[in-house]
Amino acid sequence: MRAVEYACYGEPEVLTMSTRRSPTCGPGEVLIEIHAVSVNPVDGKIRSGRLKPMPGSFPAMTGRDGAGLVRQVGDGVPADLVGRRVCFMAPRGMGTWAEEMALPAGLVVPIPDSMTFVEAASLPLAGTSAWIGLVETATLEPGIRVLIHAGAGGVGSLAVQLAKSLGAQVTATCSSRNTEYVRSLGASQAIAYDEARFEDCVADLDVVFDLLGGEVHQRSYPVLRRGGTLVYLNAEPIEDLGEAFGVQVRMAQILPNRDALTKIVDRVGTGVLRATVEKVLPFEEFVQAQTLSDEGHIRGKIVLTVR
After folding, report:
1. On the CB side of 222, how many CA atoms lie within 13 Å of its CA?
2. For domain 2-122+275-305, is the CATH number 3.40.190.10?
3. Which of 74, 116, 200, 257 is the 20 to 30 Å CA partner of 122?
4. Whole-number Cα distances in Å, 10 to 47, 256, 294
5. CB neighbours (10 Å) of residue 301?
6. Closest Cα to residue 211, out of 294, 261, 167, 147?
7. Is the pLDDT of residue 55 over 60?
8. SS3 breakdown of the chain: % helix, strand, coil, rounded to 5?
9. In contact, 149 and 178? CB cutoff 8 Å
10. pLDDT band for position 235 (50/70/90)?
11. Where in the chain is the domain with CATH 3.40.50.720?
């Protein structure tokens, strides 16, 4: 089978298309014929070495999620899964940018017939991150005032929609070219970071969902009310200033979570949320895909079609 891998840390050009032995399906596993995979910012951070020591050994594969057809099941897995259309989020280090992969059956989620493989591939990591961050970590409730950073990105575009569907009052940061887009997702206020500082526009918030880290993380503390909550993803160095500002600081632990992914897929399938894919590229354009992702200007997701 074909798979994308890299033999050292570096720019997207270190990625190469290789030929690997097709995986075998062990007990409790399913063998998936992959049709589409998504591009996630964390892929580039790992590939570049910014998140060392991951992956820890070379050659390493890239990618965390995708969608495809179940072609085989191992012992202990219901036979009626064969032929099912599914999406999935793989454990760290496995790499999904390949034509086939074997996964624990508990990590795959069936997708409705109305959902394309491209749409389904865009959901697992981004949707799971949004769900765990807002529902399980921030415990969002109706009426809560929340600020979502990077509201036009892959996680942010789903997070804005999810927060709105839960009854929150949503503000999001984005570039000026994306303010109308973010409002169309459900944000009542979109703050263009290239025109204004968000801390001059909002105050006394209940929750900040930080998808950026660094300077943005530090500037987020003053906009929270005392007792508010700052939830962040483990993607950048974080300085915990919670005690100084009287707020709770919580890292959203993003691991494969079938229940969270099922709820995201169900909501997209019923039209409560929509998959946000701006660019679809063929598998062979994997270098361009990660280059575009590293640049950080894509609305929603980039998806590679494998078949």
Report:
1. 10
2. no
3. 74
4. 6, 27, 12
5. 27
6. 147
7. no
8. 35, 30, 35
9. no
10. low
11. 126-252
Identify whether the C-beta of residue 44 lies closer than 8 Å to the C-beta of residue 91.
Answer: no
Question: What is the DSSP secondary structure assignment for residue 135, as one 8-state letter?
Answer: I
Alpha carbon distance 31, 99 (integer Å)? 11
Q: For residue 214, give the 3-state DSSP assignment.
A: helix
Distance of alpha carbon 124 from the chain centroid: 7
Give the angle 264-160-261 at the CA atoms, nearest 5°. Answer: 15
Q: Quick one: tokens of 218?
A: 């530090």
Domain with CATH 3.90.180.10 in the chain: 2-122+275-305
- Give 239's pLDDT tier (boundaries 50, 70, 90): confident
Give 123-153 pLDDT, tens digit per residue.
999 999 999 999 999 999 999 999 999 999 9
Residue 92 banded pLDDT, cuts 50, 70, 90: confident
Q: Which residue has the tokens 């990105």?
A: 153
Multiple choice CATH, 126-252, 3.40.50.720, 3.30.70.1230, 2.60.120.10, 1.10.10.10: 3.40.50.720
Question: Given a cut of 90, is residue 57 above it in pLDDT?
Answer: no
